[in-house]
Amino acid sequence: MTTLTNKRIVLGVTGSIAAYKSAELTRRLRDAGADVRVVMTRGAEAFITPLTLQAVSGHPVHRHLLDTEAEAGMGHIELARWADAILVAPCSANFLAALAAGRADELLGAVCLAGDVPLALAPAMNGKMWQDKATADNIRLVSSRGILLFGPDDGEQACGEVGTGRMREVDELVTNLADLFETGSLTGKTVLVTAGPTREAIDPVRFISNHSSGKMGYAIAAAAVEAGAKVLLVSGPVSLPCPDRVTRIDVESAEQMLAAVEAGMSGVDILIATAAVADYRPVQVHAEKMKKQGGHLSLELEPTPDILATIKAAHPKVFSVGFAAETTQLEEYAQRKLVQKGIEMIAANLVGPAATETGGTFGSDTNALHLFWANGNLRLPVASKDKLARLLIAHVAQYYSEYQFTPRVSGGKVVKLVERTKPAG
User: Are 233 and 248 in contact (CB under 8 A)?
Assistant: First the structure.
């Protein structure tokens, strides 16, 4: 089944008679799970009204480049940052020419230039226009820049002629767009993801926990599925639906999470530990609810098991990625954990007051990550957690494919596995 669950799509509509199909396309994109923002050119308004597209998208339609009310007049930048992909359907010969020339005299052109996400065009024009040498030159030029073409198809056109130039059917465009996210970079691999917080019981009513929402881990699980992996998600208590094609195991405590991960490690190629595991738990768990009494209450705490370090020690050949949420000294603490846990990569982010770019991160829909590995590091900029998860998975897949485990032998026994190939930055 075609899915665009949680994908953010900018749909550009240009001046072509096929613009009447854009309303149905918007509806089908939403049916597939996408959040759609429509951007119209001036020419598009001759064929379909903004009110129609607003009604089917559920959001105001964006039309004006110089709109002082749109994110302080920088609406094109905000839309480009927001999007996971941009689809121009229909794409007229005029807009194709403007895009080839790098023009930004309309909002849609500016959004396309400012975007760093997949950009696809669904051409729609008269057959003679499609065959014109100028159009052919423009197609070659935009294709050389990595812009994708969905169509056009053959068939009867509005002018009465039959030939190539007809906009691809709506259902096919939805499928084409969904295919952009199915990368196949982890096809045949099994990925285990931990997510969410743990809860360490004090009594039947109270527990020690943290603010983790699980959103980042769930987004990573979904991104791993898109990359072709078989995914097992071990989750602490969160209020999130299980991503499609993901097997989820629910746990409460750190001890339960460790047991679930250990039980699920058979055949796992990559472990991505995003869970915010409680560092301590009460030594004594009261069987009955503790009653409030006067004076202070002291709880004796003991460390919880280090899930990632334990699993890595037991399964040294599994490519392991940890997460570090820090309130200060991000690089120092992240690199220390990378070494202490013996893992291949760690993704670090600031939380709390120091996380000025993301507003604290916990529970938000955006994040920013700094990746560290033995021979380098890479910053992933602020983005939606869904987009960030796809970027992370792309880097993990790349590094995993280039990573070689070579045994270090001492006294005839393998004592450690060390990295021999530097991941590309």
Answer: yes
Cβ contact 292:202 at 8 Å: no
* Cis peptide upstream of residue 90 (ω within 30 degrees of 0): yes
* CA–CA gap between residue 142 and residue 98 (Å, rounded): 11
Tokens for 233, please give them: 């998600």
Q: Which domains does the chain have, with CATH numbers?
A: 8-179 (3.40.50.1950), 190-281+300-419 (3.40.50.10300)
Per-residue pLDDT tens over the stretch 136-193: 999 999 999 899 999 898 877 666 676 688 899 999 999 999 988 888 889 999 999 9
The residue among 254, 154, 248, 239 whose CA lies nearest residue 201 is 254
Instruction: Report the pLDDT value the prediction gives residue 420, as an integer from 0 to 100.
Output: 39
Can you read off the two tokens belonging to residue 344? 């291949």
Q: Which residue has the tokens 């530097």?
A: 422
> Do residues 221 and 195 make contact, with C-beta atoms less than 8 angstroms apart?
yes
- The residue type found at 337 is K
Exactly one of 91, 112, 159, 242 is catalytic; which is it?
159
* Residue 163 CA: distances (Å) to CA of 129, 364, 404: 11, 49, 53
Element (H, E) at 40: strand 35-40
As beta bridge partners, residue 376 has: 373
pLDDT at 66: 67
Spatial CA neighbour of 35 closest among 66, 7, 2: 7
Based on the residue annotation, tell me whether 159 is a catalytic residue of this protein.
yes
* Pairing of β 413-419 and β 405-410: antiparallel
How many angstroms separate the CA atoms of 8 and 174, rounded?
Answer: 13
The number of residues making up the chain comes to 425
How many Cβ atoms sit within 10 Å of the Cβ of residue 341? 21
Query: Which parts of the chain sit beneath pLDDT 70?
Result: 1-2, 66-75, 157-160, 162-163, 352-363, 404-425
Q: What is the pLDDT of residue 421?
A: 42
Q: Which residues contact 137 (CB under 8 A, 6 or more apart)?
A: 100
